[in-house]
Every structure is written in C-alpha cells, then in structure tokens.
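Standup notes
- HV: blocked on the assembly model, inputs below
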Amino acid sequence: MAAQRHYEDLARQLSAIGAVKRGLGRGLPHDCPGGSAAVLILLDRHGEMRMSRLAELLAVDMSVTSRHVAHVAEKEWILREPDPADKRSRILRLTPAGQTKVNELSELSIRTLTHYLHDWSDDEVVQLSTLLARLRDSFGDCRAASARLPFEETTRTPA
Amino acid sequence: MAAQRHYEDLARQLSAIGAVKRGLGRGLPHDCPGGSAAVLILLDRHGEMRMSRLAELLAVDMSVTSRHVAHVAEKEWILREPDPADKRSRILRLTPAGQTKVNELSELSIRTLTHYLHDWSDDEVVQLSTLLARLRDSFGDCRAASARLPFEETTRTPA
DNA sequence: TATTGTTATACTCTATAACTATA
DNA sequence: TATAGTTATAGAGTATAACAATA
C-alpha cells in the first residue's frame, strides 16, 4: 500500500498523459482514427473474436465497439462472419487489406516513438510498458456497467 | 535507443491506458468533469497564471482552455483578474471554494487509486509516476499547432 | 427471461478558423 | 503586424437506453 501523496502524484501524471495519446493520435492515417486503429491492432494481436470479447479488450461499452467495428468493416479491413455456434453472434477477422493497415500502423507508431524517445534506453521503455500493463490489469474490467466503486454514493449518480 | 518491438508494445499499452483514465473519470463529482478538474488541479499545483500558460500545462489549444476555464469561473471556483502588465491577458486564481473543490478531488483520486492499487508497493507507484512524467517531458509541447513530426507528408494533412 | 449486437441520442473533449482587443 | 483570449463549428470518443433477434 503506497502513501497517499504518491497516489495523488500518479493521478496527476495519468491525467496529463492524454497529451501524449493525442500526440500519437495525430500521426494516424487520415482514414483510420484511433478507434479503428485499436480494433485492427487487437484483432491482429489476439486473432479472430466475437464483438463482446473485443468490447472487453477495448474496455468500452459494446455500443461503442459496434460503431468502431462498423467503420473498419466498411473499409473492408475486417469481415464479420456469422458464428455457427450462436446465431446472435458475429466473428470478426482481419482481411488481407486489414493486415496491411495494421502493418502500416505499426510502422507509424515505431517512427513516432523513435522520434520522441530517442534518448530512452531499452530497459526504460520495457519498464514503462510493464507498469502500464500492470496498471491496466489492476483496474480490471472498470467499464461503466461492469465494476462499481465502493463509495459510489458520493460521486456520479449510478442511474 | 530501444528495439522496435518495445516501441510497439509501448504504443499498445498507451492506447489501452485510456480505460484507466475513464475509470478515474467516472469517480469525478457530477458538477466537475475532467476538463474542469484538470484546470483546478494545475492552478493549485502551480499557483496563479495566465491563460496561455495554463494551455501549455494542459497541452491543449487555448480555445479549449478558454472553455474549461469559463466553466470553472461560472462555478466561482476561480477568478479571472485583469493583468496590469498586459491588458489582453487574464490572471487566473483559485477561490476558497475552488480550493475546497481541489481538496475534494484529491481525496477522490486517492480513494479510487487506493481501491484499485491496494497491492502496489510505494516504489512501484513512484516508479510509474516518474516514468510517465518523463514520457510527457520527452514529448515536449506536442500540441497540434506547436510541434510537427518529421514525416508529416504521409499522415494527416498539415493544413 | 436473458443475452448478443445495433441504433438513436446526448455529453465531453479537442482542433480550426474567424473575430476582438491590445501590444 | 503580431499576440492574448473568445466563440462558433465540426469531429472523435464514449455511455445510456430502447430495440431486434436468438438462446
């Protein structure tokens, strides 16, 4: 358990990190906004999956996932195939064009980070990645309808 | 200079960290959205300042800053006083009510992080804070109109 | 009845551009 | 002319709720 002051610091740093995300976002191709990029990258990383699984990985509501997926499907970067085991479901899969886009995105993020982090050591980059992964993990599934905080009553109305 | 593969990992983790930010955001008071909270916290942290300086610290365009500031001013959490040295400028300062709000925000972030990161050590929290600060620093002022990447021509149109 | 996914609607955050007042 | 700040407008991301189809 860390000291309160350190939690405060971390909260401030997390709030400020949006600037970096926006900086990375500005490097994206004009036809592939952040939401689309995230869908493609997760499908590349984890292989084909259903909408609900993707929503979980994106950590957003399924309605949001549906919109992003509709966009990349329209670009023909993914296919939405019927799930033989459950007719309500759809299986999402990258197309060859989608794979090409993923490669492009990958190269872009490498170029951008190489530019900004040229003076970081290998170790530092890995350390930050690792801590961010752990942070994400500690928060678990903190989507609106999923996890509730233990002191909800004093904050945003639960509905 | 880190290996390309590590940059890719970091890009993925950064993209996923939005979930944590949203989780923290859901704990905010209903009358104080993220933009307002950021303004208050920076004024508390750095003391009174001009709009342009605040925009720089927020790492957003001044038009955005102006909107957030107008909101917190309407709540009477800050004052916008004329700058005697430059009549175009305004000096922003927390009111006592604003200070109270800052304290409330601080307590909220501590409660939320204590809840989610209960099994993190002091050292780990500090390490993550430090790396995030360094990351932000390495990106410098990467706002849209400020910094330009060296390979712009293949990405979003420069204008 | 419950679950998967879609759509409509609303809210927050951000950027660009046009504008004003002052330097 | 250039700069500080405001406002109007547009675009991206997200959440809630209502809905259709299937389990």
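- HV (later): unblocked. The longest helix of chain A spans residues 96-116. The first strand of chain A starts at residue 49 and ends at 50.
- Next: hand off to the docking folks.
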